[in-house]
Amino acid sequence: MKKTWILVANAARARVLERRAGDNALLELADFVCPPKNLIIEAEGGDLTGAAGKGHGRTGHAGTQFEPRMEVKDKARALFARQLADYLNQGMTEQQCDALVVIASSPMLGDLKPFLSKAAASALERAVASDLTRYQHAELKERVERALQLPA
Questions:
Q1: What is the per-residue pLDDT across 4-39, written as a single tens digit (0 to 9) for each?
Q2: Would you state the CATH architecture of domain 3-149?
């Protein structure tokens, strides 16, 4: 029986749902909440702004190399996207699902896709830019079904 994992996410919350081919019921597998930004700042050593750093450029010359400035909220969203992608990648590696669908807010969708492994990216059947995180139960199922029927 084919199992599809559906990730419903935005920058603050995400849920992974499993849909089995037989009955199309949605079973919640995991619920993620992005940690508060102050915890992320502490975990990163107190600086998420991408301050200037010294190092070697691509040409191998010594000097100062500047990293692009990144807002705290963007860094937090990127770290959350990596956490979600790691969960999906592990599920694909362990063959817990056969296909993936991602329904996420536009910024999260853009942050998440580069972190997907080759196996997860090839199993990605659909990516829909929509935020369904506030819906529950029957309404969530209805909205997921509607999102899956949108033209590609």
A1: 999 999 999 999 999 887 777 889 999 999 877 545
A2: 2-Layer Sandwich (3.30)
